[in-house]
Amino acid sequence: MSQHYFERNPASSHKREQWSSTLRGHTFRFITDSGVFSKGEVDFGTRVLLSRINVAQLSDGGPLLDVGCGYGPIGLALARELPDRIVHMVDVNERALCLAKENAELNSVSNVQIYESDAGSRVTERGFELVVTNPPIRAGKEVVHRIYEDAHQLLSPKGTLWVVIQKKQGAPSTLKKLEQLFSSVDTVHKEKGYYIICAWK
């Protein structure tokens, strides 16, 4: 059976790496391993997503949520930039979660809560001002759409969901699903086949 990064316990042999990356103006050191998404570098979609999120729109002081956090680039970048906010970071991949915790400590980012959750199933907090996801496309449409449904439930009344997804991997169906759930949906940027989508509750 092939191993995928959305599995809880990747069976692939460990092959740890460490490298640096600059995100939203801050330099991070990341430790990665086999069995996690984009282990060799922060993937292009994540980079484009992070370059477009507008934190200036945040106003009510609520927490943030990174769904499918992997080894942590999105959640840690936002937490570094917003030290007065708590950023929840969730994933189903236990190896990725261990790396995210390690990377939080490595980069001296303490305003995070990192824990296992299948989409939002184990997120007990409510009233998130922002939910962000680079969804696990290979997990299938049902899983991806459940992330959107859970995000809608977890967001504050004026909260926003930010998504990055490739056109060829389901951007049109994502837009259709989000338009069913949210009051307003906007494709804020397109680059090299990637769509950056913001949905307002």
Rg over CA atoms: 15 Å
* Distance, first to last CA: 39 Å
Ranges where pLDDT stays below 50 over 5 or more residues in a row are 1-5
Count of DSSP H/I helices: 5
What's the rounded overall pLDDT mean? 91
Query: Helix share of residues?
Result: 25-40%
Name the strands of the widest sheet in spatial order: 5-4-3-6-7-9-8
For the secondary structure, the number of strands is 9
The portion of residues forming beta strands comes to: 25-35%
Structural class per helix/strand content?
A: alpha/beta
- Strand and helix order: EEHEHEHEEHEHEE
Please outline the major beta sheet. Answer: 7 strands, mixed
Shape: globular
Characterise this structure.
With 201 residues, this protein is of the alpha/beta class. It is 28% helix and 30% strand.
Short characterization:
The protein has 201 residues and is of the alpha/beta class.
Note the main attributes of this structure:
201 residues, 7-stranded mixed sheet, globular, alpha/beta
Q: How does the SSE layout of this entry go?
A:
Blueprint: E1 17-23, E2 26-32, H1 44-52, E3 64-67, H2 73-81, E4 87-91, H3 94-106, E5 112-116, E6 128-133, H4 141-154, E7 155-166, H5 171-181, E8 184-191, E9 194-200
Parallel strand pairs: 3-4, 3-6, 4-5, 6-7
Antiparallel strand pairs: 1-2, 7-9, 8-9
